[in-house]
Structures are given as C-alpha cells and as structure tokens.
Design goal:
By secondary structure, the chain is of the alpha/beta class. It has three helices and eight strands. A five-stranded mixed β-sheet has the order 2-8-7-4-5. The chain has a three-stranded mixed β-sheet with strand order 1-3-6, with no helix packed on it.
C-alpha cells in the first residue's frame, strides 16, 4: 500500500513538472491536413491556413501521412522555402502534436515537400 501511494505521488510530481515546462493550454486550436489529392486545392492547404490565438493557447497539429508542419523564418516563408527554423516546432508526417504558445508574436510554418506549392501557414499569438 505504501508503495502504491509513493508511486502516485511520484506520478503527480512528474505531471506537474511537465505542465510548468510546457505551460497549461488556455484554448486548444486544431490545424489539420488531408491526404485526399482528388481536390488539389484543399490537399495543398493547412486548415485553417492562418490562425490567430491568445497567449497561452495551444495548437494541436494533426498531420495526415503526406504532410508535415515545420516552423520557418519569415524570410523562408515569404520565399516559399523549406529550411527549418532553429529551435522552431516540427510536426512530422502523420504525427499529432500539441504546441504551446506562451509569448505574443508571429510564427510561420510550411509543409516541407509542398512549400513550393504554397502549402504554408501562420500562427499569430496576441
Ligand atoms: Cu504538404
């Protein structure tokens, strides 16, 4: 019984540490992609493409298997490039990841194989 209690306490400590590190999400927004290439217009898009959120909100990126979402600099975004931003977020193909945004600012991201086809997006945190 003592061991079970200890395990519970340790689990709770681990969880609260994680929350402090990543922050606790205010509202969670969702960005999705589709693998259905019969409609190229929606295939080459993040949905939504441009998202405005509040400081402390999270964005849950739900990537289908042929797309990724990689943060880039404004310059790379403007030139439809695909070079990842140092220390930026990166959600892999077919991956779902919740990203916490704790500071106001602008984030630019692209789908690396389709950046040239304007599969790009922004997150505005205000
Ligand atoms: Cu893509």
């Amino acid at each position: 019984m003592k061991n079970i209690l200890l395990a519970l306490v340790l689990t709770q400590i681990a969880c609260s540490e994680k929350e402090t590190e990543e922050g606790t999400c205010g509202t969670t927004h969702t960005v999705t992609t589709t693998d259905d290439s019969s409609d190229m217009e929606s295939y080459m898009d993040f949905s939504p493409e441009d998202l405005t959120i509040a400081v402390g909100d999270c964005v849950n990126f739900v990537m289908s298997s042929t797309h990724n979402a990689v943060e880039v600099s404004q310059e790379t975004y403007d030139s439809l490039g695909s070079t990842a931003l140092d220390g930026g977020f990166e959600v892999g193909y077919g991956e779902t990841q919740e990203i916490y945004f704790g500071e106001a600012g602008m984030h630019y991201y692209v789908c690396q194989p389709h950046a040239g086809g304007e599969m790009i997006g922004t997150i505005t945190v205000e």
